[in-house]
């Protein structure tokens, strides 16, 4: 995320009650960002929905095929991010 946009994003998230800013215990000049209970519930709901959608999308594959697909996709990703192995 572009550092120029982070304050606006955090303001929006705080406005929705999903994060809160707290003083840093070690350095009072700094602030930390923490998920609220509402934010934690939202993360859980989104993760659960994503898992359901993924399961539906991959429904035609058995577990061994899913595992193989995952390995192949990771190899492709690594070859573009990390360079050739």
Automatic annotation (TrEMBL):
Q: What is this protein called?
A: Winged helix DNA-binding protein
Q: What biological processes does GO assign it?
A: response to stress
Q: Which stretches are annotated as coiled coil?
A: none
Task: Tell me where the transmembrane regions lie.
Answer: none
Listed GO molecular functions? DNA binding; DNA-binding transcription factor activity
Whether DNA-binding counts among this entry's keywords is yes
- Kindly list the organism's lineage: Bacteria, Bacillati, Actinomycetota, Actinomycetes, Streptosporangiales
- This protein's species is Actinomadura physcomitrii
Name the keywords, alphabetized. Answer: DNA-binding
Domain HTH marR-type positions? 1-78
Write down the InterPro entries for this protein, in alphabetical order.
HTH_MarR-typ (IPR000835), MarR/SlyA-like (IPR039422), WH-like_DNA-bd_sf (IPR036388), WH_DNA-bd_sf (IPR036390)
Q: Name one Pfam family in it.
A: HTH_27
């Amino acid at each position: 995320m572009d550092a120029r946009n982070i304050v606006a994003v955090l303001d929006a998230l705080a406005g929705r009650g999903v994060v809160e800013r707290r003083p840093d215990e070690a350095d009072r000049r700094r602030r930390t960002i923490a998920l609220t209970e509402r934010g934690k519930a939202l993360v859980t709901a989104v993760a659960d929905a994503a898992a359901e959608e993924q399961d539906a999308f991959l429904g035609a594959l058995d577990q061994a095929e899913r595992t193989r697909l995952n390995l192949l996709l990771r190899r492709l990703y690594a070859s573009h991010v990390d360079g050739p192995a």
